[in-house]
Amino acid sequence: xxxxxxxxxxxxxxxxxxxxxxxxxxxxxxxxxxxxxxxxxxxxxxxxxxxxxxxxxxxxxxxxxxxxxxxxxxxxxxxxxxxxxxxxxxxxxxxxxxxxxxxxxxxxxxxxxxxxxxxxxxxxxxxxxxxxxxxxxxxxxxxxxxxxxxxxxxxxxxxxxxxxxxxxxxxxxxxxxxx
Length: 179
Known about the structure:
This protein is 75% helix and 0% strand. It is mostly helical.
């Protein structure tokens, strides 16, 4: 018995461009947010908090659009924009990405509060790892206050950023369902 319904449209250039744009949107938007966060406004840098939040969110909710090479590039960009020792941002973002991928089946089905608490745990681990790596690379203990401020930014920035990222994710899902 033949299946009735809407016929599958022929793949064309516009359809492929649309799919490519949807696939690249998480990485490109994260890069643009990271670049925008480095504007000199007299506040501490939000760069690591934005990178961590976006990589965590997209790794949990749209992992195919946030592959490890993109995370590597974002970590390298974070190190270069933030004048951090090369490799610190790369390592922390790759570890967050890999860990979030392992927990995504659990986290994707949970409430926002559970996901946020998980993100706070990831942020604590990433800030601690960055602190230890900087101490090892500089052969001296860095001040603790910037690390605590960074942890506060990571925890506090996730809810508003996740709200916008969730809207973008749902919009991409609707477009894929229509395609």
